[in-house]
Description:
Blueprint: H1 8-14, H2 35-48, H3 64-76, H4 79-93
Helix pairs in contact: 2-3
Amino acid sequence: MAQPLVSDELWEIVSPLIPSVQRRHRYPGRKRLDDRRVLTGILFVLKTGIAWEHLPKELGCGSGMTCWRRLHEWQQQGVWQRLHETMLAKLHQADKLDWSRAVVDSSFLPALKGAPKPVPARSTGANRAVSTT
Length: 133
């Protein structure tokens, strides 16, 4: 049997980071799909590289659009940032991080503001149209 993408150990870490969503009372709409199933669909798409619309329904993760929307929703709520920080803390605590291989470039650090701007060259008038009248 294949290993599940979202193991019980991983779910214990992720589940407290996902905010709960209360169902509306007046117009409840469809029942929201279970977060663990949606996370499985998100991880499947990210791992395999398939398009969202090709997510197999047999996985029971809902549609690709459902998974994409939840991915976007969780990104807006900061779930992925908190998960990243939590996983880094756990790896650091277990002494499993090798910081000698870390790379920092401009995509991780903001560029310094206030650098001098280039001064535009003064026009000499050499490129102006010459009038023959």
